[in-house]
């Protein structure tokens, strides 16, 4: 067995009372593709704006390709609940936002970079899992 540790994603520190902890979030649905404050502030090690934008574009392209080769994706209601077991930045869920389904984004406990806060800042749902 392993001792349980805190698994709440902490908000980044602020330097003044007028600042919003973590940074201002865009309104929905703009926040889905806007640069999350954790990335713009450099709080997520190794994740830059370029990495974030590339990941978002890559998943949009992949979903477009999947739709072209898997006809079942176009059937409304066929898929309702999807688990992304290695969600990283939530790009897969963001690319499916127009579909009538929801994606549970999972960040592995063993992940080298904790990106669950980025997923939350995009307005998506997620959890840790091993």
From TrEMBL:
Annotated membrane topology: Single-pass type II membrane protein
One GO cellular component term: trans-Golgi network
Enzyme Commission no: 2.1.1.-
InterPro entries associated with the record: Put_SAM_MeTrfase
GO biological process: methylation
Keywords: Glycoprotein, Methyltransferase, Signal-anchor, Transferase, Transmembrane
GO molecular function, one term: methyltransferase activity
Subcellular compartments: Membrane
Family to which the UniProt record says this protein belongs: Belongs to the methyltransferase superfamily.
The protein's name in its UniProt record: Methyltransferase
Native species: Nymphaea colorata (pocket water lily)
